[in-house]
């Protein structure tokens, strides 16, 4: 029982209890005897009734009763009256048992089993439910049973909707009723039942309804969660859309195989180093999709035969769905003339197949193109960046002075996709609704200081900005939202980590929202003599970031400094397929499993994870988020015949798993608890191409 | 901060184990195997598993096994997955899982998977995501997870995901911390955690902590010690 202390029994009570116990034991033994010997006489069945009415948790007795019913039915199979009375008796016993404990799984299930024999009427069941739901409107057994009855007896969803309305009007704080309402509305909208054809007609009333609850008692959670669901329904775009790509549409890329000689006049944002014979083509969708392959995406160029292209989903575990997909395009063999330009055309949506996890198809035929030219100094690919050690110190970086020919490397495909009339009116309604909600909540917050109110306003403002992308009048609410999250961190310290994460996401959105802002964080790396060929480094350090986001705006980044933040995870970083130098030092990464996205960064050559917390924690909280021998998803990877599972791999399996496929030339790991001589020699074994470990050159 | 009164806890558990004739004990006789799991795990955490007679416990557990391969809550009762998991877990505590015929126990569980991927608790057909967790957890301990259709099992669990990020006992069932523990646990073992909306669910779970410091199971309900374990362990899973 909740909240009641236990007290030891007084001696006279203890004796009475022992006597009661003995009596009960005799009855239970008798019952088990009947059960094992298939005795279904009237007395035997009554014994089980007696037991269940006082102890409905005696699950074996419910099983016995079902057998008894089956037995009786085979005996009197042609008499409908007899059938009715048998089943009626069962229903009576269930009701009686439920009065003893209306949360008994066994009792509710027995009733369902009886109903499956085709007995009882919907009115009877609803009446029973009414009784129970009046006694406890949150009883989830009753609500589940109600859904079962409504479905199996064809009660209309509209009637059920009305019922939730009554329950809510009776008591705003009925989360179960709000939950059921959201479920019913989802179904009605999905099936486009008459009166529920468009969200535009249905949702405004729902908003008004939930406002009553929220404004009456802002501290009660029920209304707020329903509001969150309404917001999701208003803002969510069901169909998959292409958000971003690399190379960007219309870009002119220069791919380099070695340091560029002085003749390089082009923008560093269109020059990319390669040390392999392929370069990636990355597609970034607004949600996880499946079915991206050479039949659903056509890449037309001299560099590859489309049907030979293999598209990979960038996701952890063995999920077939991902938001980001990548394929590799070839560079031609042999000595190429430096000025030859290869146009590449990418088209999708021409054939069905790309589908989201909720079953919506990508249906927007879209085509974009870019041009690639190659500059090789030698014919073989050379590890451009592996020639010298990268230093992450401030002295190595210089502000980049923008040149006029620099165009933004951020693509926004949103601009390029054509909207039809339907989508435009739809958009207008959504935007208007969000704007109205923003006004409402600003008003509420002017009256009271309510944490969920602030959180909701923050979410509304971000939703508004997301819908207006690209920003129509360059009005962005980021500053206001960041203020709100700062407020929330003070107002609600128990959830500070969540607010910090959201704050980080908004900050990154702000930083990547326009070209000028990004440019101010781009630094030219110039530690080497012929510096014009070195890539741009995007510096996002010292921003108190605890979470990463906005990857769709960062697909072009080759060198990234995320040091001196508060990162525990780098989820989503796998999208940055061009990354060759990554600095994660001075964060709070707690284990190698938190670095899983790195496994997908095949171009990574220099990695700095120094001064983190790897090896400092006895419990690895990201263990199950990562594919591993402990999880079911991994099969063949760990059973490769070539790998000898030696003691080192057993001790350091996380490090082995994350690092083994990588071609790192430079690795910094000092300042982590796991580091000692044994670990360092293990690293050298796992990373055969490593040239520098913690600043020291290896031989 | 005070210290845990470990000895008192051990004494209490042993007393409950011995007191088979009290009214509470008789009335809950049918779920003694569950009680054994909770009590013995506690003893193990406190480093006092040797306070019970291992042979006694194990021989009693084996008497609870039915010819179908499943285990009942106590001797003479009907088999059910609830007690089958407890049996396997207790044997694992004593590091004696190998005395079982793993195939026999697995076959019992495999036979309870339905076409939609869900699991019934026993032959009478009650379906609940708790049973999905039980099946996956139990088979994982027995190293027989490949005997069921894991993809379908995951599919069913995902179909029980709600709009607030939580999970219910059946599709459409309200989110409840207990069910969430089971569903997230099952997805973790099956390597399918990417189906969980970590932000949404994390937020919902954080909201379970009430002013007294305890944790409730659903919005606007009273805090409960049992749920402290479930919600707390989930957060550990997820950071």
From TrEMBL, chain A:
Native organism taxonomy: Eukaryota, Viridiplantae, Streptophyta, Embryophyta, Tracheophyta
Protein name per UniProt: Geranylgeranyl transferase type-2 subunit alpha 1
Keywords: Transferase
From TrEMBL, chain B:
Cofactor(s) annotated in UniProt: Zn(2+)
Known catalytic reactions: geranylgeranyl diphosphate + L-cysteinyl-[protein] = S-geranylgeranyl-L-cysteinyl-[protein] + diphosphate
Protein name in the entry: Geranylgeranyl transferase type-2 subunit beta
Single GO molecular function: metal ion binding
Entry's EC annotation: 2.5.1.60
Annotated organism of origin: Citrus sinensis
Transmembrane region(s): none
Taxonomic lineage: Eukaryota, Viridiplantae, Streptophyta, Embryophyta, Tracheophyta
Domain Prenyltransferase alpha-alpha toroid per the UniProt entry, residue ranges: 4-225
């Amino acid at each position: 029982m909740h909240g009641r202390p236990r007290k030891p029994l007084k001696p006279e009570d203890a004796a009475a209890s022992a006597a009661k116990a003995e009596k009960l034991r005799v009855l239970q033994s008798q019952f088990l005897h009947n059960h094992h010997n298939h005795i279904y006489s009237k007395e035997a069945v009554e014994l089980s009734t007696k037991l269940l009415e006082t102890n409905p948790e005696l699950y074996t007795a419910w099983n016995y009763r079902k057998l008894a019913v089956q037995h009786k039915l085979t005996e009197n199979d042609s008499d409908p009256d007899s059938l009715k009375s048998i089943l009626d008796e069962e229903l009576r016993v269930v009701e009686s048992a439920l009065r003893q404990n209306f949360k008994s799984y066994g009792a509710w299930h027995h009733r369902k089993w009886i109903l499956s024999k085709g007995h009882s009427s919907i009115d009877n069941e609803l009446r029973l439910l009414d009784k129970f739901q009046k006694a406890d409107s949150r009883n989830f057994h009753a609500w589940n049973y109600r859904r079962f009855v409504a479905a199996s007896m064809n009660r209309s969803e509209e009637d059920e909707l009305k019922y939730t309305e009554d329950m809510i009007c009776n008591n705003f704080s009925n989360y179960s009723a709000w939950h059921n309402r959201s479920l019913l509305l989802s179904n009605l909208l999905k099936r486009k039942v008459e009166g529920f054809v468009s969200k535009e007609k249905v949702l405004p009333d729902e908003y008004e309804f939930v406002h009553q609850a929220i404004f009456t008692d802002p501290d009660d959670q029920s209304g707020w969660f329903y509001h969150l669901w309404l917001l999701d329904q208003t803002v969510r775009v069901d169909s998959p859309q292409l958000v971003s790509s690399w190379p960007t549409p219309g870009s002119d890329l220069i791919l380099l195989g070695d340091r560029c000689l002085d003749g390089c006049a082009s923008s560093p944002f269109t020059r990319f180093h390669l040390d392999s014979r392929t370069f990636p083509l990355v597609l970034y969708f607004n949600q996880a999709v499946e079915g991206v392959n050479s039949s659903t995406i056509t890449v037309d160029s001299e560099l590859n035969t489309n049907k030979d292209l293999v598209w990979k989903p960038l996701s952890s575990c063995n999920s077939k769905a991902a938001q980001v997909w990548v394929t590799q395009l070839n560079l031609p063999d042999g000595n190429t003339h430096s000025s030859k330009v290869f146009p590449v055309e990418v088209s999708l949506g021409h054939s069905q197949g790309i589908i989201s996890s909720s079953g919506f198809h990508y249906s927007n035929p879209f085509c974009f193109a870019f041009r690639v030219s190659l500059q090789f100094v030698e014919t073989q690919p050379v590890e451009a960046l592996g020639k010298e050690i990268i230093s992450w110190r401030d002295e190595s970086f210089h502000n980049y002075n923008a040149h006029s020919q620099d165009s933004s490397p951020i693509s926004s495909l949103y601009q390029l996709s054509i909207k039809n009339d339907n989508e435009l009116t739809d958009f207008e309604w959504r935007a208007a609704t969000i704007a109205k909600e923003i006004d409402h909540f600003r008003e509420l917050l002017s009256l009271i200081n309510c944490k969920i109110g602030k959180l909701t306003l923050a979410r509304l403002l971000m939703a508004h900005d997301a819908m207006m992308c690209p920003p129509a009048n360059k009005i962005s609410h980021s500053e206001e939202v960041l203020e709100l999250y700062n407020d929330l961190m003070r107002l609600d310290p128990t959830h500070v980590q969540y607010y910090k994460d959201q704050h980080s996401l908004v900050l990154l959105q702000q930083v990547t929202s326009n070209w000028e802002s990004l440019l101010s964080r781009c630094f030219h790396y110039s530690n080497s003599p012929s510096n014009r060929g070195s890539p741009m480094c995007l510096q996002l350090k010292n921003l108190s970031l605890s979470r990463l986001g906005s990857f769709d705006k960062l697909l072009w980044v080759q060198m990234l400094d995320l040091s001196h933040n508060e990162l525990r995870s780098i989820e989503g970083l796998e999208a940055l397929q061009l990354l060759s130098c990554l600095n994660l030092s001075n964060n709070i990464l707690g284990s190698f499993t938190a670095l899983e996205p790195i496994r997908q960064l095949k171009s990574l050559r220099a990695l700095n994870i120094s001064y983190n917390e790897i090896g400092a924690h006895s419990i690895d909280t990201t263990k199950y988020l990562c594919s591993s021998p402990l999880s079911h998803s991994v099969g063949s990877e760990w059973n490769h015949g070539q790998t000898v599972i030696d003691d080192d791999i057993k001790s350091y399996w996380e490090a082995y798993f994350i690092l083994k496929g990588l071609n790192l030339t430079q690795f910094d790991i000092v300042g982590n608890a796991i580091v000692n001589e044994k670990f360092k020699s293990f690293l050298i074994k796992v990373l055969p191409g490593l040239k520098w470990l913690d600043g020291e050159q290896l031989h | 901060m005070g210290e845990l009164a470990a000895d008192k806890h051990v004494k209490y558990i042993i007393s409950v184990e011995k007191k088979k004739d009290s009214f509470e004990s008789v009335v809950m006789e049918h779920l003694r195997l569950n009680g054994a799991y909770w009590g013995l795990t506690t003893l193990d955490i406190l480093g006092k598993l040797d306070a019970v007679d291992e042979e006694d416990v194990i021989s009693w557990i084996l008497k609870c096994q039915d010819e179908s391969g499943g285990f009942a809550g106590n001797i003479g009762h009907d088999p059910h997955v609830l007690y089958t998991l407890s049996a396997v877990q207790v044997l694992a505590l004593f590091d004696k899982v190998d005395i079982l015929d793993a195939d026999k126990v697995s076959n019992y569980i495999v036979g309870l998977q339905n076409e939609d991927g869900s699991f019934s608790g026993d032959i009478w057909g009650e379906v609940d995501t708790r049973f999905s967790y039980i099946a996956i957890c139990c088979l994982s301990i027995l190293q027989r997870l490949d005997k069921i259709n894991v993809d379908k099992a995951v599919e069913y669990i995902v179909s029980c995901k709600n709009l607030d990020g939580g999970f219910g006992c059946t599709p459409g069932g309200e989110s409840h911390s207990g069910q969430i523990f089971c569903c997230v646990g099952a997805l973790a073992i099956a390597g399918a955690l990417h189906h969980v909306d970590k932000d949404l669910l994390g937020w919902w779970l954080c909201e379970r902590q009430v002013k007294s410091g305890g944790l409730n199971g659903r919005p606007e309900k009273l805090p409960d010690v049992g749920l402290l374990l479930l919600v707390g362990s989930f957060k550990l899973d997820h950071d």
